[in-house]
């Protein structure tokens, strides 16, 4: 069982900041295949990790 560190699991949670395409399995940096927006998994400002449904609750 994997211990929780509080940090997001980038393999499961990283999504494109523009179209929310799931970036799982893609190289650690590049462009989203859906919309073309650039991302770098080393730079948290270039992708989303929050729950996509929570933004609609408030």
Provide a concise account of the structure shown.
With 58 residues, the chain is mainly β.
Structure description:
The protein is built from one helix and four strands; from the N terminus they run αββββ. It has one domain (11-56). The strands form two sheets. A two-stranded antiparallel sheet has the order 1-4. The protein has a two-stranded antiparallel ribbon with strand order 2-3. A hairpin with a 6-residue loop joins β2 and β3 (38-40). It has one helix at residues 10-13; strands spanning 15-16, 29-31, 38-40, 47-48. With 58 residues, the chain is mainly beta.
Tell me what portion of residues adopts beta-strand conformation. 15-25%
Helix content: under 10%
Which sequence of SSEs, written as H and E, runs from N to C?
Answer: HEEEE
Unreliable spans are 1-11
Estimate nothing, just give the exact number of structural domains.
Answer: 1
Category from helices, strands and their pairing: mainly beta
Largest sheet: 2 strands, antiparallel
Helical run tally: 1
- Terminal CA distance: 33 Å
* Average pLDDT number: 79
Describe the global form.
Answer: globular
Radius of gyration: 12 Å
Provide tags for this entry.
4 strands, 7% helix, two-stranded antiparallel ribbon, two-stranded antiparallel sheet, 1 helix, mainly beta
Secondary structure topology:
Layout: H1 10-13, E1 15-16, E2 29-31, E3 38-40, E4 47-48
Antiparallel strand pairs: 1-4, 2-3
